[in-house]
Amino acid sequence: MKLSIYDMDYTIIRKPSWMSWLFHYARTEAPARLLLAPLMLVPALGYALHLTDRKGLKQATQALMIGRRSPREKVERAADSFAAGFGADNELQGALAAIAADRTAGFEVAIATASCRHYVEALARRWGIDRIVATENRWEGDFLTPEIRGENCYDIGKLRMILASLDARPTHVKFSSDHVSDLIVLEWADEPVAANPSDALRQVAQLRGWPVCDWAK
User: Fold this and answer.
1) Are 99 and 177 a contacting pair, CB within 8 Å?
2) What is the distance between the alpha carbons of residues 103 and 93, in angstroms, rounded to a whole number?
3) CA atoms of 101 and 95, how far apart (whole Å)
4) Does this model's pTM top 0.85?
5) Terminal Cα distance for the chain, rounded
6) What is the pLDDT of residues 136-186, one digit of tens each?
């Protein structure tokens, strides 16, 4: 198997998705929670002061804007409408063309993202991608909780989660990302691609001779 893995935010889509998702869910499924939006400054300040990490920040903001037990039918309905709206408005045509080209070249396509699976699945369906490695929330039966199971799918955690998802190393791994936080995964891949790269990743790519794709233009 040849595997082409894509980061999502700023790689396939032009904007970060997390806050947009939280506000979309609150607006469409729990409008009263919009009144709690100013309270998100508290965990954001905690993150800025290094009192919590990205995982803790996600858990706290999700609890405020989505709730501590969110019915599956509401989550799935909001995720589908989020993919149809936010996904359609922000997907990068260059990225979709690259995905199509990878499929033609015989790659299986996957997404590996720090975003949470409960809404990434709907976006992935839009792009015809079945294999997903993402941050995982705990479900209590048919209720979504803010608790994250295992690691936040970020930095070295992303590589560990990719490796855990594989039965064996593919014959060839291509990985496309915009950010230097994915450097460890880019170095692991057989074919690293700097896609819409941050300044820091662009510098690394130029030093190492990695291809640079500017799909956002």
Assistant:
1) no
2) 15
3) 10
4) yes
5) 31
6) 999 999 999 999 999 999 999 999 999 999 999 999 999 999 999 999 999
